[in-house]
Specification:
Blueprint lengths: L3 H35 L1 H10 L3 H12 L4 H12 L2 H8 L7 H7 L5 H9 L4 H26 L2 H22 L4 H20 L4 H15 L4
Helix pairs in contact: 1-2, 1-3, 1-8, 1-9, 2-8, 3-4, 5-7, 7-8, 9-10, 9-11, 10-11
């Protein structure tokens, strides 16, 4: 076994941990938001089985609004179609057989796809490791949210974490040091804005991140 292999695995874990931490925060928000709508048992089952933030938050919103089961199912199925382009992007770098691909398929997320394309480790292994950490964080966050969080108190934290998560992912998956530096500076500027002016919200943070990354010169 080459010395590069353990190094690549450590790199995958190092990149996946902050992403999983951010996903865990959204899990807390989901638990707090879904608990009053679904109840404790169904909220936990949805996180254990569905494991899709966008789909689960959509279900909560639709059920709370009185949507029919058919409407909820249709919306979730439509959102699931995004996995088709994710799979297509990964197809050229996959080396395992269909059975092993099926095993890691539940961990196919926007974040794990980005890491799989840039981590320098086998794509299937990267998805399994990063996806496993993200899954544990999401389920753990749901438990915390159910245990005592209220959506009103946690919502500002989610608003702050949303842009930071994707800016951070850009830094982790950057191909060059200059791109990573821009992404880190953009993420720091986004955090600073939200700390000083929470009302700016996600759109304000994204605007600042784009502006910073555009004007900062490569080191």
């Amino acid at each position: 076994m080459s010395s590069a292999a353990p190094s690549a695995r450590v790199s995958v874990i190092s990149a996946a941990v902050p992403v999983a931490a951010a996903i865990g925060v959204f899990g807390v928000v989901y638990g707090a938001a879904a608990g009053p709508v679904f109840g404790t048992s169904l909220t936990m089952i949805s996180s254990l089985i569905v494991f899709s933030g966008v789909a689960q938050f959509t279900m909560v919103a639709l059920v709370a609004a009185g949507a029919t089961p058919v409407a909820v199912l249709g919306a979730v199925a439509t959102l699931a179609l995004r996995h088709l382009p994710l799979g297509a992007v990964l197809q050229p770098v996959l080396t395992a057989g269909r059975a092993r691909r099926a095993l890691v398929a539940p961990f196919l997320l926007d974040e794990t796809t980005g890491l799989a394309l840039t981590a320098g480790e086998r794509a299937e292994r990267t998805i399994a490791v990063s996806g496993g950490l993200a899954y544990a964080a999401w389920v753990g966050g749901t438990i915390v949210g159910l245990a005592g969080g209220t959506f009103a108190s946690i919502e500002p934290l989610a608003a702050a974490m949303f842009p930071v998560l994707f800016v951070g992912l850009a830094a982790l998956t950057a191909q060059t040091r200059s791109d990573a530096t821009r992404a880190v500076l953009a993420g720091a500027a986004s955090v600073a804005l939200l700390l000083l002016w929470p009302a700016a919200g996600a759109l304000g943070a994204i605007a600042v991140a784009v502006a910073v990354s555009s004007v900062v010169k490569a080191p």
